[in-house]
Structure formats: structure tokens, C-alpha cells
Write a structure and sequence with these properties.
Layout: H1 8-52, E1 56-60, E2 66-69, H2 71-77, H3 81-84, H4 96-111, E3 119-125, E4 131-140, E5 147-153, H5 155-177, E6 181-186, E7 191-194, H6 198-202, H7 206-209, H8 214-217, H9 220-238, E8 247-255, E9 261-272, E10 278-287, H10 289-311, E11 315-319, E12 325-328, H11 330-335, H12 341-347, H13 351-354, H14 359-372, E13 374-383, E14 389-400, E15 406-415, H15 417-451, H16 453-472, H17 477-488, H18 499-502, H19 510-517, H20 519-527, H21 536-542, H22 563-578, H23 589-598, H24 606-617
Helix pairs in contact: 15-16, 16-17, 16-22, 16-24, 17-21, 17-22, 20-21, 21-22, 22-23
Length: about 625
């Protein structure tokens, strides 16, 4: 209640003061409520940030226990917040090798909240045991002993950094050890790097080489080429349609430390910044001195072979697969009767029908070429421009691409008309000679028959058997003909033996047999001067020799005896044993073959003996 002693005015003033105090109290309460609301809002904001930020965040107590963790921690470690908050210390997640460092930082930070080291890296151990690289930022919460920490997983970044470092080391190692010279220049053409291989190329150490400008390095003509090329590139660089990967490859002649020069192939392109502006030049220089020498040698060689091509006696050509000339030299044109290679190439539309006299020869040529890829010594008759004929020999080969497709045929053609005429004359001469030899032999056979009709029958049957054995052995026809000729007269030497001994009906004495054995030598003496394509005299001389050396007259062995003589020896023995003799009756073919079996490989050649036995036992051969 109001004091009654107070005046009305005093009461009014007092009431006014009370109202003011009430108003102040009301304002204070509103401010408090606003402050509380702001605090709740701030706490909610920071709690939301703490929980939802992409960064892993922790609140760590003084004893290292994790009192609060956001969802990022679960993703980072594999543990839920419920498994961690208030239950685990952060040291449990640190790799042992980093633990001591982390504990030291923790202690120092609490001893001095202003400790400067707030961010550092460590290795965190995930729930499944694998490690992650983490960068952590830690600070003390003001007025507390708690720490707030944010953790960022930099594992992939570390891997990328390691890979980049490894790549840089690898490429640095490559640049330092590559045989080619790697270089970098600024836009003023000053070297900023040259690889050590410059020592091999120019004789300078890299540090020395970098001091020389291109004007000092290149010969004047090469420097002029380099500047002109650079000017062209710079003009392109200014163009609206410039290429970002502009590069050029130049052949430049450089000076060496010893005063000599070296030819190089240099490829260079721009180094660009993030705005694609050219800020430097990088390039690769390769020594091509030997290649330049080879190119020069090839150029000289091409000139030399062009001279050979144009002046060769043989025809040289290239032709398509369908039979048209691509190139031809003057010699080929001349031998075919054309005034020039150009006329030949233009006139011959189809080699097969216009050059070949016999179209089947062209087909045969193509078949050989397709089968072998080349044709060697192919003799064929060609037409000349005027329709006359001439003989040529062709040596040719196909030229193919990487897919084995025939591109063209190239070859040499030689005119052999004169040789072919000479061969024809020689053939005629040989035929005449064969006829002469045949006549001579016939005269000799007649002489033998006039003295001993038995010897004539023996020689005829032996000849037939010897030729059959040679045929069974698949000997060439020409060799078989030689065996036939020699067999017909193999006993010609018996002309020197008295008829009384040849036809004696009783056993011969040693002296008489010695005279008989001389018929091989006598036959040789009679035939040695006879011109013949075959060694008739020697075949006759050896037909009584035996494989083991027990024969006569020279006791030859094995391969010392002609194959023709070994065949004749077996035929001679079989016929002699199977046939009648003046001094005995025929022993029969069975006994003769038993003799061959018994002495096969001893007296008689294995192959010859087997062929003879096969004729009689498997093919029904009979002496006629």
C-alpha cells in the first residue's frame, strides 16, 4: 500500500519509477529470450554444420576420448557414432608409426593453445585394416580443454601425387637417358633444359649446350629454315583458326664442339599455359647423319642403277598382274623391234597375246609365278613388232604389299635366239654322234656274233635284264640308254680270245681262265677312244668288279664301281647261271637268284640286288 503521509505528487513520481523499472525488466526478459533464441539458433546451426558437413569432424576430450563425431567419421573409419562417442580414443585409429607424433602434438596444444602446428598429415586405420592418408586440422575450443578436429581424406590425392611424382621421375629418367636429345626453350629461343644425350650428339655437356643460342648452334642455311618455319607458325598462332597442337619436323644441320657438323631431325611444338597461350617450345632432336649418308648413297645408287637400267644389254621390265608393261628399258624395246621403251609400253596392251607365240607358255609362266612367287630360267618364243619370232629366257619375281597382294611383276629378259640356234645345231650333231656310235657298236656286235653265237645271245639277254633293273631303280632314261649300249657290247673284249677257248666243252685250265678274264681290259682298250655321251669303255671295264673288292681286273670296291657296272654285273651273273654253257648245262633261274640273295651286300650292291629279285619274284620277269 502507498504511504498516506506521501503527497499525491510523490506517489505519482514513485509510480512512474515503478513503471519504468517494470518496463526495463520486461525489456531485459525480452533480450534474454532473444539471446536464448539466438543461442539455440546458433547451436542448431553449428550442430547442423557439424553433422552434415562433408568434412569429418570430432570433438576430443582432454583424455583423448572422442566425445562427439559426425556422420563423416563413419564413412571415414567404418565405425558408427554410437560405437565411438564416449567409448573410444582417437589414438585407436592412428597407424602405429604416426602415433607418437600425434600424442606429442596433443600434449603441446593443451600446454599452449596457441601452438602453431594445427594442420598435419597422419595415417588412419580403417575398420577393415586398410590405411588412409588424412590431413587433420585441430584447435582448442576456447574456455575448455576440448579439441575440435576436422579430418580430410587425401588418400587419392596422395596416390595421384605419388603417381605424378613417379611419372615425373620416369619421364625425367627417360629424358635424361634417351638417345634422342630432349630440349625446352622459352619464347625468346633461349634453352631452359637440354637432356644429357646432347653430349653424344654435339660433344657438349648440357650446361655448355644451354649457353649457345640456335644461331650459334645451327649452320646458316638451317638457321634460316628454322626462322622461316617459326615465323610461319607464329602467323598461324595469331590466326583465329590456329591449331593448338602445331608442330613441325625439320632436318637441320648443327655444329659440334669439335668443329664438325651433324644432321638432325628435330620435331618441336609449343608449350601452353592454362589459357592455351604459347609460353615455350619443347622438342626432340635425333641424329640422322647416317640416314642422310644412306639417303645420299641411295640417291647415287638410284642414279647408277638408272644408268644400268637404261644401258643394260638385257631387257628389264615391270608389268601389271593383268599383263601390261609399267616400265621397260631400251634393250627390251630393241630386241622386240620397237623404236623406244615408250612405244613398246604403249603398243603392248596384252603381253600374253601380243608377245607370246604360244599362249600355253604364258599360262605356264603365270602358274609358276603364282605357285612360287618367282620364275627362273623360263625359255619361251616371242613375237617381234614385225611378226618375226625370237627366243628369250625370263627371270622374274612378284612384288607384294604388306597384305601379300601382288602389286606387279619385275624381271629380266635375255635374247637367246643365237643360243637356241646353236643348241639346235648341237642337238643335230649329238643325234649324228649317237647314230655313229650305234653303227660302230652294231659293227662290233656283228664281229662278236661271227665268232661266237653264244656270246651274242648272252649279251642280248643280259642287256634286257640290266635295262629292266635300271628301270625298276627309277634311273633317268639317258642313264638307262647308256646301260643298254654298254650291255650290248660288254663282252666285246672276247674278240681277242681264241675261239677254241670260248667254245671249249670242258673245264678251262688256269691259263685259259686267265685269258678269259682279260676280256674286260681288252674291251676297254677297244672302246676307250670311241666318242660317246656315256662312259661305255669304263662300264665294260668294270662289269666283273665286285662290291667287296674280290672282282677283276682292278679289284675295285663299293662306290669306286660305276652304278651302271654294278647293274650289268648282276644281270651278267643271273643270265650266265641260268643259261647253257659249252662246258655245262644251265643251272636255272632259281640257282641264279639264290646266288644273288647269298651275296647281296657282299659281291653285289644291295639296291641293285633287291631290284633284280623284285623283278623275278614279284613282277614275273623272265629271261628272253
Amino acid at each position: 500500500m502507498n504511504d498516506p503521509s506521501k503527497t499525491y505528487q510523490e506517489l505519482i513520481e514513485e509510480n512512474s519509477v515503478l513503471k519504468q523499472k517494470i518496463k526495463e525488466l520486461e525489456q531485459s526478459e525480452a533480450e534474454r529470450k532473444r539471446a536464448e533464441e539466438a543461442l539455440r539458433s546458433s547451436e542448431l546451426t553449428y550442430q547442423t554444420i557439424f553433422k552434415t558437413t562433408g568434412t569429418t569432424m570430432l570433438i576430443v576430450e582432454k583424455d583423448m576420448t572422442i566425445s562427439l563425431a559426425n556422420d563423416g567419421f563413419e564413412n571415414l573409419t567404418g565405425y558408427t557414432r554410437e560405437e565411438v562417442e564416449g567409448k573410444r580414443k582417437w589414438t585407436e585409429f592412428v597407424e602405429k608409426g604416426d602415433l607418437e607424433k600425434m600424442i606429442t602434438y596433443h600434449k603441446l596444444r593443451r600446454a599452449d593453445p596457441g601452438y602453431p602446428t594445427k594442420s598435419y598429415e597422419f595415417r588412419l586405420v580403417h575398420r577393415d585394416g586398410h590405411q588412409k592418408n588424412i590431413i587433420v586440422t585441430v584447435d582448442i575450443i576456447p574456455g575448455t580443454k576440448k579439441s575440435v578436429a576436422s579430418l580430410m581424406d587425401i588418400t587419392e590425392r596422395k596416390r595421384a601425387e605419388e603417381a605424378l611424382k613417379e611419372s615425373e621421375n620416369k619421364y625425367r629418367l627417360l629424358a635424361d637417358n634417351i638417345h634422342d636429345v630432349v630440349f625446352f626453350m622459352d619464347m625468346n629461343l633461349n634453352y631452359t633444359y637440354i637432356s644429357p644425350s646432347v653430349k653424344l650428339l654435339r660433344g657438349y655437356e648440357p650446361e655448355e649446350a644451354m649457353k649457345h643460342t640456335p644461331a650459334e648452334t645451327l649452320t646458316p642455311s638451317s638457321m634460316d629454315l628454322a626462322l622461316r618455319t617459326l615465323s610461319e607458325i607464329m602467323e598461324m598462332e595469331k590466326s583465329e583458326q590456329r591449331e593448338l597442337n602445331i608442330s613441325r619436323t625439320l632436318q637441320l644441320e648443327m655444329s659440334r664442339k669439335d668443329g664438325t657438323t651433324v644432321w638432325t631431325e628435330t620435331k618441336a611444338s609449343f608449350i601452353r599455359d592454362e589459357n592455351q597461350r604459347a609460353v615455350g617450345i619443347m622438342g626432340l632432336t635425333r641424329d640422322i647423319t647416317e640416314r642422310k649418308k644412306a639417303e645420299e648413297a641411295l640417291k647415287n645408287s638410284e642414279a647408277k642403277y638408272r644408268n644400268i637400267f637404261e644401258n643394260a644389254i638385257e631387257g628389264i621390265y615391270q608389268s601389271t598382274t593383268v599383263g601390261r608393261f609399267i616400265t621397260a628399258n631400251a634393250a627390251l624395246a630393241r630386241m622386240a623391234g620397237y623404236d623406244s621403251p615408250e612405244e613398246l609400253i604403249e603398243s603392248i596392251k596384252d603381253i600374253g597375246t601380243q608377245l607370246y607365240v604360244h599362249i600355253e607358255d604364258r599360262k605356264r609362266f603365270m602358274e609358276i609365278r603364282e605357285a612360287k612367287g618367282f620364275v627362273d630360267g623360263f625359255e619361251v618364243e616371242f613375237y617381234k613388232k614385225d611378226g618375226s619370232k625370237f627366243w628369250v629366257v625370263i627371270n622374274a619375281r612378284t612384288v607384294k604389299d604388306d597384305q601379300e597382294k601382288i602389286l606387279y611383276t619385275e624381271g629380266l629378259i635375255e635374247d637367246i635366239t643365237i643360243r637356241k640356234h646353236a643348241e639346235e645345231l648341237l642337238h643335230q650333231t649329238l643325234e649324228s654322234l649317237k647314230k655313229a656310235v650305234g653303227t660302230t657298236i652294231q659293227v662290233l656286235v656283228s664281229a662278236v656274233e661271227s665268232r661266237d653265237t653264244y656270246t651274242s645271245g648272252h649279251q642280248s639277254r643280259s642287256t634286257h635284264l640290266a635295262c629292266a633293273i635300271a628301270t625298276e631303280m627309277e634311273l633317268p632314261p639317258d642313264k638307262i640308254e647308256g646301260i643298254r649300249m654298254a650291255s650290248i657290247i660288254h663282252d666285246i673284249g672276247k674278240l681277242s680270245i681264241p675261239v677254241e677257248i670260248l667254245s671249249k666243252p670242258t673245264k678251262l685250265t688256269n691259263i685259259e681262265f686267265s685269258l678269259i678274264k682279260e676280256h674286260s681290259r681288252s674291251g676297254y682298250e677297244m672302246l676307250k677312244d670311241v666318242e660317246s655321251p656315256w662312259p661305255l669303255a669304263e662300264i665294260v671295264y668294270q662289269h666283273h668288279e665286285r662290291v667287296n673288292g674280290s672282282g677283276y681286273p682292278r679289284n675295285l670296291k663299293g662306290d669306286e664301281i660305276l652304278m651302271e657296272s654294278q647293274i650289268l654285273a648282276v644281270a651278267d651273273v643271273v643270265e650266265a647261271m641260268a643259261s647253257h654253257r659249252p662246258y655245262r648245262s644251265a643251272l636255272g633261274i632259281k640257282a641264279a637268284l639264290e646266288e644273288i640273295v647269298k651275296n647281296k651286300g657282299i659281291l653285289y650292291d644291295d639296291v641293285v640286288a633287291d631290284a633284280c629279285l623284285k623283278l623275278f619274284r614279284e613282277k614275273g620277269y623272265q629271261l628272253t
